[in-house]
């Protein structure tokens, strides 16, 4: 997983230039070992996994299903899947967006995925303005 990222100055940065890691994989391994394992209690991680496994909005609105639950959301929603995310697929976000009355899809086309804070911050600011 090698790649580049354009920062807010327009400079093209690689994983090595920005974080001093040779690859994205080495970054994620180091971060998980130095941050998640050091600062998170095991029960916190279990609670996070439980939320991912059981977080089911189809149970909202008297258990009328996912389609009805998404159609019932009145807030503006910005779906931001990354083209490099193995968990949250763009195709699934497109389906969800089609059911959201005020949904907008903005794909993060970056090796950095949800670490691309410049792109994400810009899109959130656009949504809120």
TrEMBL record:
<dbReference type="InterPro" id="IPR029058">
    <property type="entry name" value="AB_hydrolase_fold"/>
</dbReference>
<dbReference type="GO" id="GO:0016747">
    <property type="term" value="F:acyltransferase activity, transferring groups other than amino-acyl groups"/>
</dbReference>
<protein>
    <recommendedName>
        <fullName>Homoserine O-acetyltransferase</fullName>
    </recommendedName>
</protein>
<dbReference type="InterPro" id="IPR008220">
    <property type="entry name" value="HAT_MetX-like"/>
</dbReference>
């Amino acid at each position: 997983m090698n790649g580049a990222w354009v920062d807010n100055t327009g400079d093209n940065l690689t994983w090595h230039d920005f974080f001093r890691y040779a690859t994205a994989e080495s970054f994620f391994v180091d971060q998980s070992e130095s941050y998640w394992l050091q600062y998170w209690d095991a029960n916190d991680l279990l609670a996070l996994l439980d939320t991912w496994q059981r977080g089911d909005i189809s149970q909202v609105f008297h258990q009328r299903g996912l389609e009805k639950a998404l159609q019932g959301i009145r807030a503006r929603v910005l779906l931001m899947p990354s083209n490099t995310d193995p968990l949250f697929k763009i195709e699934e976000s497109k389906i969800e967006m089609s059911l959201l009355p005020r949904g907008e899809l903005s794909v993060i086309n970056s090796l950095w995925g949800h670490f691309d804070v410049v792109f994400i911050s810009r899109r959130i600011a656009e949504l809120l303005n």
